[in-house]
Amino acid sequence: MLLAHFGFLGHDAAHRQIFASGRANDRAALVVGTLVSGMSLAWWNSKHNRHHAAPNHIDRDPDIDPTVLHWYPTGSVRRSRLARFLRQRQGWWFFPLLTVEGVNLHVQAFRTVLGRTPGRRRWAEIALLAVRWGGYLAVLLMVLQPGRAVVFLGVQLAVVGVYLGCCFAPNHKGMPVLPADAELDFLRRQVLTSRNVIGNRLTTLAMGGLNHQIEHHPFPGMPRPNLSRAQSITRPFCADHGLAYTETTLRRSYGIVIRHLNQVGLRAAVPFQCPLVAALRPRT
Questions:
Q1: Which among 16, 71, 79, 265 could disulfide-bond with 88, CB atoms 3.0 to 4.6 Å apart, if both were Cys?
Q2: Is-contact 214 196, C-beta < 8 A?
Q3: pLDDT tens, 12-52?
């Protein structure tokens, strides 16, 4: 969980929320995100910037690309009976699948830095990842027997995956998904696809400030402590302009995510239609 919170700090630094200097933020993101958490800053910036530019937008937001889970109906059904069975109940597999998300994050880091496309900080990231994993594995083998070291690493990666998934999923999953050809203004694009999580200071701490997602998306460079303060401005502004300001508890958000995945699985063969875009489309 401590490593996950270093990841949150890397997220904040990548958004340039911490320091006034862009260079200082980049260095901080490399230290806490790559050296400590073991994630590639180049991979994260590319993926996360595309997500912020078009949240829940098909073919634009990589966070909803169809992989093991499908976040919107694709109009295609797999022939295998087992595949159909799993797809129709994919919501129930969401949390178990998060146990391997930690491994996936590290795999994506190495695929990025060792890939053919050169990055601006490629060699710096390679060096930091080598130091991180070399030092981490060395410490494990120094204090634990090899078998226990493997188990410890497996549990740590599983906990990181579940924890991060439980913090990121409530933000957009189960909110409206925009078709590839949809065109919305910036405010609607950011607000209508985001969800806030109601809670206390412990909730904010546990989620790394990501529970104020509606405020974070229009103002990605706003420091985390100010997001709750901006809520007193954002909520009435949305009400005055007829924009749905969605917020719910953390527990209910998980139920929404599971139901959404199961509904998508049951409608896998139905062509995707977005009720949000239909409601906003001007009548002729």
A1: 265
A2: yes
A3: 999 999 999 999 999 999 999 999 999 999 999 999 999 99
Distance CA 181, CA 188 (A): 15
Give me the pLDDT at residue 66, please: 87
Please state the domain extents for the chain: 2-47+57-280
**What's at 284, amino acid-wise?**
T
Check if the beta carbon of residue 6 is closer than 8 Å to that of residue 209. no
pLDDT digits (tens, 9 = 90+) for 212-265: 999 999 999 999 999 999 999 999 999 999 999 999 999 999 999 999 999 998
Strand pairing category for 247-249 and 196-198: parallel
- Return the SS3 of 104: helix
Amino acid code (one letter) for 256: I
Dihedral, CA of residue 157, residue 167, residue 47 and residue 5, to nearest 10:
-60
Largest CA distance in the chain: 72
Q: Tell how far CA 164 is from the center of its chain.
A: 8
Around Cβ 252, how many Cβ atoms within 10 Å? 12
Tokens read off for 154: 């497996």
Q: Can you read off the two tokens belonging to residue 115?
A: 């890939």
Measure CA of the first residue to CA of the last residue in the chain; give whole Å.
Answer: 53
